[in-house]
């Protein structure tokens, strides 16, 4: 299976920016965005810096921001990190927030639940809620 790319929109308090052909990295926890994009959209933060280990084993200090990301017409809150030389990738935390997974047999994204719905478990009971936008189907 080759690399998988998708389009996404990043939204903050000031603007929304559409990004085309963004690499999905199932080895990355968080979505990585260049600082310029985070500033342009008005991302929430920065929060306290964190130390992250990149795929090549290098440790870097990263700044942490909150954004809203839309993929496949569903928007959800996401954590985005940035650091010197950051390359844009979509991490699994964002995919899970939106309700998407990568099917390794087809190499395509597919929904893990109805579009626009989120589920949580409290006290042994499943609770359903709606994400920021999306379909209720």
Describe the structure.
This protein is mainly beta and 137 residues long. It has a single domain (5-130), classed as Acid Proteases (Cathepsin D, subunit A, domain 1). 10% of the residues lie in helices and 53% in strands. It is built from 2 helices and 11 strands. The chain has helices at residues 35-41, 92-98; strands at 5-11, 16-24, 31-32, 44-53, 59-71, 74-82, 89-90, 100-103, 108-111, 117-122, 125-130. Strands 1, 2, 3, 4, 5, 6 and 7 form a 7-stranded mixed β-sheet that branches. A hairpin with a 2-residue loop joins strand 5 and strand 6 (74-82). The longest helix is centred in the N-terminal third of the chain and has 7 residues, at 35-41. The termini are far apart. The relative contact order is 0.20.
Mean pLDDT across all residues, rounded? 85
What name goes with the CATH superfamily?
Answer: Acid Proteases
Shape: globular
Structural class: mainly beta
N/C terminus separation: 31 Å
Number of strands: 11
Number of domains: 1
Low-confidence stretches: 131-137
Q: Give the CATH class.
A: Mainly Beta
Radius of gyration, whole Å: 15 Å
Quaternary class: single chain
User: Roughly what fraction of the amino acids lie in strands?
Assistant: over 45%
Largest sheet: 7 strands, mixed
What is the helical fraction, as a range of percent? 10-25%
> What CATH architecture would you give?
Beta Barrel
Q: Kindly report the CATH topology.
A: Cathepsin D, subunit A, domain 1
Order of helices and strands: EEEHEEEEHEEEE
Keywords:
11 strands; disordered C terminus; seven-stranded mixed beta sheet; Cathepsin D, subunit A, domain 1; 137 residues; 2 helices; two-stranded antiparallel sheet; mainly beta
